[in-house]
Design a protein that fits this description.
Blueprint: H1 3-81, H2 103-114, H3 132-141, H4 151-154, E1 159-161, E2 171-174, E3 182-188, E4 191-194, E5 203-206, E6 214-217
Antiparallel strand pairs: 1-6, 2-3, 2-6, 3-4, 4-5
Helix pairs in contact: 2-3
Length: 219
């Protein structure tokens, strides 16, 4: 082998070594990039999972709070209604005073008296059981008057009237406007009809039995 051939062979070997080294570096860099990408993807997945878990926990907490609030409200209303105990038997047989506005009031009171003795069930709107506002809503619908569903909402409609100026068909309330916890209907002769609580079915009571706080007129 001549000196020139030997020199060319050495140069080729050196080039091959450099090429191999470059390929090794490139492979190492590619592996590092792949590892970094995998780590980033894993971190992103973990972050997404943590965010989803946090959101789920927040939703569950809100739902639990809403349930607790609803239970507290129901318990409060039941506690307040517990003071409106069973209708005395003698008062249930009393007849109402003549209705001032004619047939609508007569029909209203006739429907209400037909419900006497039916049980109180929270949230019920008849025909076999009622809660206080369910009874008044259904009764007034029979004479063409649309009332909201709850006693709180019903206490915001109509024209306020003095308890000294009550007329048959007036709604009587316990509690404030927009926060009433019970409602009944004045039927005349100093009496009202209501569905008070689970221990007191639909019946008639004297105003002196549990005097309302105020009243409104919707007929």
């Amino acid at each position: 082998m001549s000196a020139r051939q030997a020199s060319d062979a050495v140069a080729q070997d050196a080039m091959a070594v450099k090429l191999t080294a470059a390929r090794a570096v490139a492979a190492q860099q590619a592996a590092q990039q792949a590892a970094q990408q995998a780590a980033q993807q894993a971190a992103a997945q973990q972050a997404a999972a943590a965010a989803a878990a946090k959101h789920k926990a927040a939703v569950a907490a809100k739902a639990a709070k809403a349930r607790a609030t609803a239970s507290a409200l129901a318990a409060s209303r039941s506690s307040k209604r517990a003071t409106l105990t069973a209708t005395p038997a003698a008062s249930s047989s009393s007849a109402p005073a003549p209705a001032p506005s004619g047939s609508k009031v007569d029909q209203l009171i006739a429907f209400l008296k037909a419900q006497i003795g039916k049980p109180y069930v929270y949230g019920a709107t008849g025909p076999d059981s009622y809660d206080c506002s369910g009874l008044t809503q259904v009764a007034f619908s029979k004479v063409g008057v649309s009332l909201p569903r709850t006693s709180q909402e019903q206490s915001t409609v109509g024209t306020p009237v003095s308890l000294n100026s009550l007329q048959p068909g007036d709604l009587v309330f316990w509690g404030g406007e927009g926060s009433a916890y019970h409602v009944g209907v004045y039927i005349g002769d100093g009496q009202y009809l209501d569905a008070a609580n689970p221990s007191s079915p639909v019946g008639i009571k004297p105003l002196t039995y549990s005097e309302p706080d105020w009243a409104v007129r919707v007929l």
